[in-house]
Structure formats: C-alpha cells, structure tokens
Amino acid sequence: MNLAYGQHSFALQTRVEYGPHVHEKVGAVGNQLGCRKALLITDSNLMKAGLAEKVMRPLREAGLEVIVFDQVTTEPTDVLVESGVKVLKETRCDLVVALGGGSAMDCAKCINVMADNPGRITDYEGAESQFPHDTARPLITLPTTSGSGAEIAGWAVITDTARSYKMSLGSSYLTPDYALVDPVLTLDLPARQTAYSGFDALSQAIEGMLSRRRSPISVALGMHAVQLLSENLPRAVARGYDLEARSNMATGSLLAGIVINVAGCIAVHSLAESVGGFYHIPHGLAVALFLAPVLRFNFPGDHTLLAQIADAMGENTEGFSEHEAAELAIDRVEQLLEELRFPTLAEVGLKEADIPRIATLALGNVCTADNPCVMSQDDFEVILRDAVGRQGA
Q: Which of 182, 13, 177, 12 shows the shortest CA–CA distance to 95?
C-alpha cells in the first residue's frame, strides 16, 4: 500500500505528560481544570498496594475532595458501569480520575460518559458510538501498566454480561482529557501482568501499522514503539524495578496507544476480544496468542512492512530476501512468547467445539473491518484451528 497518495487525518484530544513522578501533578491538573471533587476509579488491589494513596495524596493536598470507587475487575462489565454511574451521580463529583490498567481506564470512560447519556452502555456498541451528549466533567488517566494505550484512546472494551462478549465502543466522548504516564506507577506490576500488558502494546503497534487505515504517522510511531517494547519487555519482566526498562515500556505503550487511536487494530484484537469474553482470560494473554497466527494469515499482502518490523524487533535481516525477513518477524513474536513462558491456546482451554461461535463473534468485531486481508467466517475458523495445532505441537 503506497501511502504517498492517500489522504489522512487524526486528532489527539488528550494532553499528555510522561516520565518518572509525573503522577504527583494530578492535584495541580485538577485545580487547573477548575475541579473540586474527584471520583477515583480503580481496583481493590491498587488500594491495598498503596498506589491509590499515591494519587489521592496530591489530590487532597491540592484541596480536592476524593471519593473512591474501587470495584473495577479485570473484565469490567455493563453492570459494573451502571454501579459506577450511580456513585458518580450521587456524589456529584466534577472530576473523574482513572488509576489502573486498561480495565480501570475503560470503565472510567464509560462511567463518565453514561452519567450524561440515556440508556445502558450496551446501547452504544460500535466503532462510532452514538452518544447524544459529551461528558460534563474531565477525565484524568494514570496507567499502572504499560500495555493498553487506554490512557489516550477514544476506545473502550466492556463485557456485555448477557452475551459474555467483550464489546468495543469508539467515540471522541470517551477520550481522556489529561494523561499522566508515570513509569514509577508500574514498578510493582508482577512479571506475568507485565508480560501480558506489554504484549498487548506490542501487538497494537504492529496492528496499527498493518491496518487498512494505516498512515505515515501510524507506521512511524509504530516502528519506534515496536523497537522500544521488544527491547525492554524481557528486561521489565525479569527485573521489575528496572526504571529505565519501565520508562521505555511506558513510552512504547503510549506510542502504541496513539497508533491505534489513529489507525485502529486488526483481526488480532477481533479474536482476542472474542476468546477473552468466552473464556474470561486476560486480554493481553489472548492478544499475544493470536498475534503470530493473524500475521501469518496476512502474510501475502504485507511483506515489506513485516520485514521492517523484523528489523525493529532486533532481527538481523542482512542477506535475507524481503519474504524471508518478513518471516523473521513472525518467528521473533513466537520466540518472545516462549522466552516469557506464555501458555498455549490449548492450555488456556480453547475447545474445538467452540471455534464456530468464536469465529462468528470475531467476524462481527469492529476491528475486523481494518484487517488488511478480507476476513470470512471460514478464515477465522482456519486461523483458530491452525493456531491450536501449532501452539499445541
């Protein structure tokens, strides 16, 4: 795909500050936004670990009252959003602060927007969610993982409990107003969560480069994100308190978030969200297990970019043909999975009998339209069966 003749546009609504200790500015930002009462949306584990206090302290020191909603789970649901909306309305907070991984930030986005809109969050599923009204209060995000890119994205993934399905929503009304990306908040993240969230970021960078909506911006930022993430993910997993590795992961994840905000994801996320909702497995794990299979499916149309991705991942492609270099990118993804000791699809419980239903859900996912090769129900079933066979070998 020659990008020189295309027309491209993008908007970044979120103001971003990143680097060690920027979380301490959250109170000053709240004052700057003219707010007096904050609803902190997080999870109970971050409360117990003391990370929530690191954010509440500067808020209180700046004179803001803080109300805590710490019911976020790893798979936020429509029911959880409704609970949060009730708290937000009852407390009349004029600021929402999201602390956590993608789950907390997605949950906060949906709570914030649904406090000002009718119906239920399930009424607005889709790449262009038709919320009648914008949010009445600003949203500040503070990620504690380097993976989702949710801190700047106008996207959210929420589980529809009636269907056990992770639905995607997209709207400028979901975009955070301010993001404070602080690697210090990720230092205590366990190795397994570091690996899962890091692979999510890596996949997003690659997917945004291959997307039908790719642009010079997504390719340029995506390549640098891939370099940062592939170099630093093993270090961050092995040595959690390596601030340099954590800082590079935070930057790579932020760049990957911009990439998917500009270009979207592809069938990797279609399958990951479908399988994740079906079996209730971590999103980053599901994304990691489908990255290589989907790259292999899209291989015929993307040799050049995949060869460049191999270079960005540190592979020595000198003397290789473009086709051979492109294969190295897929090989490196699979090597990383092995190095970081990811389980296989068979080990996470994917069943042959469920494949048709999962394929149907993936086909209807909003990310499927951006896949570089046109996907059918049969294609998804072939990818699923092939992935189980390869990973189980």
A: 177
pLDDT digits over 152-208, tens only?
989 899 999 998 888 889 999 999 999 999 999 999 999 999 999 999 999 999 999
Query: What is the structure's pLDDT at 346?
Result: 86
Assess whether pLDDT exceeds 60 at residue 306.
Answer: yes
Could you count the other beta carbons within 10 Å of the beta carbon of residue 217? 17
Per-residue pLDDT of 196-250, as tens digits, reads 999 999 999 999 999 999 999 899 999 999 999 999 999 999 999 999 999 999 9
Q: What is the DSSP string of 70-87?
A: -B--SS-BHHHHHHHHHH
CA dihedral 278, 279, 285, 286 (to 10 degrees): -30
With tokens 């949203």, the residue in question is 139
Cβ 185 vs Cβ 247: under 8 Å = no
What tokens does 269 get? 């996320």
What beta strand segments (E) does the chain contain?
A: 15-18, 37-41, 65-69, 95-100, 139-143, 155-160, 165-170, 178-181
- Spell out the domains of the chain, with CATH numbers in brackets: 15-186 (3.40.50.1970), 191-392 (1.20.1090.10)
Q: How confident is the model at residue 10 (pLDDT cuts 50, 70, 90)?
A: low
Contact of 259 with 229, CB cutoff 8 Å = no
Q: Answer with the residue of higher pLDDT: 230 or 261.
A: 230
Cβ atoms 46, 144 nearer than 8 A: yes
Can you list the alpha helix ranges (DSSP code H) found in 94-190? 102-114
Q: Which residues contact 1 (CB under 8 A, 6 or more apart)?
A: 214, 372
Beta-bridge mates of residue 179? 16, 141
Q: How many degrees, rounded to 5, is the angle at CA 283 between CA 253 and CA 138?
A: 55
Tokens, residue 19: 């680097």
Average pLDDT, the chain: 93
- Helix, strand and coil content of the chain, in percent to the nearest 5, comes to 60, 10, 30
Q: Is 119 left (phi over 0), alpha (psi -120 to 50) or beta?
A: left
pLDDT of 144 > 90? The answer is yes
CA–CA gap between residue 177 and residue 137 (Å, rounded): 9
pLDDT of amino acid 7:
64
No. of helices (H) and no. of strands (E), the chain: 15, 8
